[in-house]
Amino acid sequence: MNATIRRTAVALGLLILALMVNANVLAVIQNDELRARDGNRRQIIDEYDQQRGSILVGRREVANSVPTDERLRYLRVYSDGETYAPATGYYSVYGATGIERTQNDLLAGSDDRLFVDRLTTLFSGQQQQGGTVVLTLDADAQRAAVDGLNGQEGAVVALDPQTGAILALASTPSFDPNLLASHDPTEVSENYERLRKDPGSPLLNRSIQQVYPPGSLFKVVVSAAALSSGEYTPGTDIPGPAVLNLPDTSATISNFDDAPCLDGEVTLTEALALSCNTAFAKIGLDLGADALRSQAEKFGFNERLDVPLDVVPSIYPDDLNAPQTAQSAIGQYDVRATAMQMAMVGAGVANDGVVMSPYLVAEERAPDLSALSITEPEALSRAVSPEVAAELRDMMVTVVSKGTGGSATIPGVSVGGKTGTAQDGNRLPHVWFMAFAPAEDPQVAVAVIVENGGILGDDATGGAVAGPIAREVMEAVLQ
Amino acid sequence: MSTTAAIPAAVSTRAPKNRRGTELALLFFAYGIALAAFAQVDLVVLDELSTDFTTFAIVFGVGLVIAHGSLRWLAPYADPILLPAVSLLNGLGLAMIHRLDLAEDPSPPDPDYVAQLGWFVLGVGLFVAVMLLVRDHRVLQRYTYTAMLVGLLLLVLPLLPFIGTEINGARIWIQLSLGGRSFSFQPAEIAKIVLIIFFAGYLVLKRDVLALARSRVMGIDLPRGRDLGPILVAWAASLAVLVFQRDLGTSLLFFGLFVAMLYIATERRSWIFIGGLLFAGGAFVAYQLFDHVQLRVGIWLDPFADESGDGFQIAQSLYGFASGGVLGVGLGQGHPDFVPFAKTDFIMAAFGEELGLTGVMALLVLYAIIIERGMRTAVACRDAFGKLLAAGLSTAVGIQVFVVVGGVMKLIPLTGLTTPFLSYGGSSLIANWALVALLLRVSDAARRPPEAARREVAA
């Protein structure tokens, strides 16, 4: 029987070997994938076991963790949560959004750069802590943006044109992240469901996650394309009839008030100042869809951004025919833009034609408050030449000083701007305003969108509803 | 040559080496590791050594000394590695059960660890009793058919009214009331040993007949038709366990064990072939007929399909292994309590999380050592009954470890079985101590030098 006993022993050995191989597969090959699964509560519970780092605006903590007596040892607390929620996001037992998600490794203390800190705490027995994230937001500008929106459905993005730093990132109606930071999973999911079903969509970040037809704001992009083509100057005369017949179709484009612009012929500067639809439709037809798309893409259209929050791509569509091109030239048809994108257009014009990469994280700090990284401004693209940028800047200053953008006037400061009123299906028009100031040394560029005309509804125009908000945000930065 | 010829004679006058000293040293080693594990649990979770630690140190230490002493007295030539190996498993199991108690409640009112330590004491008691009562394993051969009856009775016991109870969907328990406390007992664990004795005794008698070949098909010698009886009975009994008790694991264990012993005894590969066919057929029919079998297979194929429902246990178990990684998160520092039944069926996942791949590999190596020492005993044993008994007992450990640990790791569909010596559960623990006692009894006979045996006879 010894031969069969030996063979059976070998067979049993192979069974144990199979277990060993399987243990290796689980612990070495599949472990990252398994650890990252949503159903695995270990990671989040371990994260709650130590003090998560703070999120700062200026010197003020807008998100920090405080000790509790519960099983999850630290509770995330947001001060002024609704104001900063579009930037911070929330941190819940079910997961996180916003900066809480994108900078999670640093906040949770698991970032590779904190390796030495972890080693130290391991041997000293101290509590490990997370690192701190300092945002680029300007507290006054953010407050002005939220106050200005005043609960209307809309968004404000303000940028430093020279660096790309995001000074304001507002979206209303917003939500209080404290509602989702509770340690009680039932409470969190109930609150989440309520927010998700709220008709005002408070969880939607309208500043970077939602695209709108840019309407007349897109005329700045068309002007940039026109000036860059070399065939136009700010003084070039363009026909501006009450109604423009489009080729190959019975459709027409008409002006806002169904009247001709001035006496039916305007300069490029005047066309922008008066927001003359027929003149820009004509320019669009002359330049063609490719020139418009190429110019739009130089400002950042059709590109996803990582600021490090995810910014959905703004869209200038492919394969437009002539009537569609004419409509796209006044920011209609299928052209779509985020508030972030339109702020980038304003910032690019103000910054001598260079669009800086927008960024929300100014600095990352280790638990001992030493700086781990300070964000260096980077150019995203050159949208127009400095000469064209100067011409555009003057044209946009004229919009505020003499045209439709008067509501953004700041006494003693030269402000450039553009109004927009965009049709989106059959709903009330969305109203826009984009601006920068001061024109000679730009400190701030801002884009404001208010959905469906805001409180003014049908009577709303970009100048009346969005303009004052843009002004207040710029004033907050310039003070 | 002539100068060295005197040396063996000189050696033979001294007592032959029995390796009990080696065993004692290894036991100290096992004791130390278990103590360190227990202390770490206390220090990490409670920041101090609890009174439980003192009790554990004393009771576990005394238990090992008694077991070791009984071998010195009753089986001096027994294998020196088996006892330390199972002691280490038992000690680590106790530490982990204590750790899981603390995870539920820092001062548990009725800790399972205390109960398990009690079972350890009973286990060692049974170990010594087996050593005392079974002075020669060949005596057991006389009880071959008694063993069959007792084994079948034990298997049927949970199905009887009043004493049989169903726990977690399997009717494999009997409930006993002793002194006002009620105990649940899994008779199948004891039945396992009794039936191995029966298989061994039966196969010794019938192996020549069962080895007879009638025809040769595709290079395989097929047995005579009428000799198929025993394997068909074993198969039917296993299926009955599956159907009436819903116990996939025990069913698989008994059938696998029987086929392996049949193969060892008859040296005919055809039995493996026939056993495999019967297994495949039984598995197919069971899958078609029984929802709980289909459910287990479905969960095995994709535990994440219904992660918060049916697949919860396996998913949590896999998270445990993944979370442990190579080195583990450290005793007392993970969340092994997230895995349901972590103290019983899923205790390997708790080790995987807190001691990591390193710990799991060490535990699997311990099982491999136990199986290897058992099989070596079978090879060295001089009588057929002893060979089959030792091989059967070792195979039972091997199959059981594979079935339960493989299930917990999603290598095979999950079936409920305890992890020998590690899992919480009295019936399993004392049964396995008895199993090791029998193995050691056979190994004492196998390793006893002929002259020592003669001396004993003379005395």
Keywords:
heterodimer, A: 479 residues, alpha+beta, Beta-lactamase, six-stranded mixed β-sheet, five-stranded antiparallel β-sheet, 17 helices, 21 strands, B: 459 residues, mainly alpha, three-stranded antiparallel β-sheet, two-stranded antiparallel ribbon, disordered N terminus
Written account of the structure:
The complex is a heterodimer of chains A (479) and B (459). Chain A is 39% helix and 19% strand. By secondary structure, chain A is of the alpha+beta class. Chain A has a domain at 215-361 and 378-478: DD-peptidase/beta-lactamase superfamily (Beta-lactamase). Chain A is elongated and about 110 Å long. Chain B is mostly helical and 459 residues long. Chain B has one domain (18-458). Chain B has helices spanning 6-13, 20-46, 51-74, 82-104, 112-133, 144-156, 187-210, 229-245, 248-266, 270-289, 291-301, 312-324, 347-354, 356-380, 384-408, 426-447, 450-458, and strands at 164-167, 170-178, 181-185, 213-217, 220-223. In chain B, the strands form 2 sheets. In chain B, strands 1-2-3 form a 3-stranded antiparallel β-sheet, with no helix packed on it. Chain B has a two-stranded antiparallel ribbon with strand order 4-5. In chain B, a hairpin with a 2-residue loop joins β4 (213-217) and β5 (220-223). In chain B, α3 (51-74) packs parallel to α5 (112-133). The radius of gyration of chain B is 23 Å and the shape is globular. At the A-B interface, α1 and α2 of A face α9, α12, α14 and α15 of B.
